């Protein structure tokens, strides 16, 4: 197919960002380009700076025109942002604000974080093998509301000293749309929905729980349970395989998804999709990023794991580009690469040296996935 003009060309914005972002995105791009050659589609990339690199270049975390570029694309492929140079609590501009602005301005209200455990990585998890085997869950995190965005959010000085406020607000509409998406996803999977809240303390959680109950009759085929977030954090380690789809507000989702990543052996394995309501010519508009951050301590060393970014590319093909079969081929190529023993340092750590393991860096791992993808397409053995 490679010598024919591609049947379709997708318009993607790519945001390498800070820290390890550029390295993992470089690997991810090569896998997507290879998928295009093998399956006959083209990609037109527009690269934009967001995060610390944008603060350096333009003085802001993201420029208005770059938000517009993202909005006009079929999807956004995102690396990571965050830079310790901006960690000063008094800093006025922070890279993270740019990511929050993109999520908000692009109306990406739902963040899908699937957690699956690759059979050959079961031993890489610090959690006992018998517990992590068979884990296949999906965290649906509300992404544009809650305490991340509520106003006021500020420090004040009062006669009694400093005082601080963050505000947790949700409208009924914001809760209902993400809860409905949770039900829809559960319907397409094992038909179990866990709604996570803190209804014994928070008013916002009590409305959340009420709305889950209001939506529930529309999905009689889905089993629903409510869990308090603290107990749920415990159950996620004690009996993770019981969970299917888990829906929760923004901050709870941020926390529990990092916890859940431990099950998969490494934060470097987990992809994500941030979706909104807008349809493009090919699917739902979305932003795709690994859930790990910019990891400045290992940046520029070619040791970061690119698989979360590569798997985020697969999610992009599935959700935004209407190419579920190609997404599956990439996921299969990742599984084959791991089965062949390729390991970035984060995946080696828990198990130590084992026979058959090949320690590789970021780019070699991505190249191995490209090779597996090409071999898989030929139906060949490597
Ligand atoms: C995530 C990250 C972000 C968040 C940070 C970088 C703002 O932790 O995507 O989980 O808190 O949402
Ligand atoms: Mg997080």
Structure report:
With 382 residues, the chain is α/β, with parallel strands linked by helices. 40% of the residues lie in helices and 22% in strands. The chain has 13 helices and 14 strands. It has helices spanning 21-39, 52-58, 64-72, 95-105, 129-132, 172-187, 203-215, 229-238, 250-261, 307-319, 324-339, 345-348, 362-378, and strands at 9-17, 42-47, 75-80, 110-116, 136-142, 150-158, 161-167, 192-197, 223-228, 245-248, 273-279, 284-288, 342-343, 358-359. The strands form three sheets. It has a ten-stranded mixed β-sheet, with helices on both faces. A two-stranded antiparallel sheet has the order 6-7. Strands 13-14 form a two-stranded parallel sheet. Strand 1 (9-17), helix 1 and strand 2 form a beta-alpha-beta unit. The mean pLDDT is 95. Magnesium ion is lined by residues 254, 258.
Give a short overview.
By secondary structure, the protein is α/β, with parallel strands linked by helices. The chain is built from 13 helices and 14 strands. The strands form three sheets. The protein has a ten-stranded mixed β-sheet with strand order 2-1-3-12-11-4-5-10-8-9, with helices on both faces. A two-stranded antiparallel sheet has the order 6-7. A two-stranded parallel sheet has the order 13-14.
Key features?
382 residues; single chain; binds 3-isopropylmalic acid; alpha/beta; 13 helices; binds magnesium ion; 10-stranded mixed β-sheet
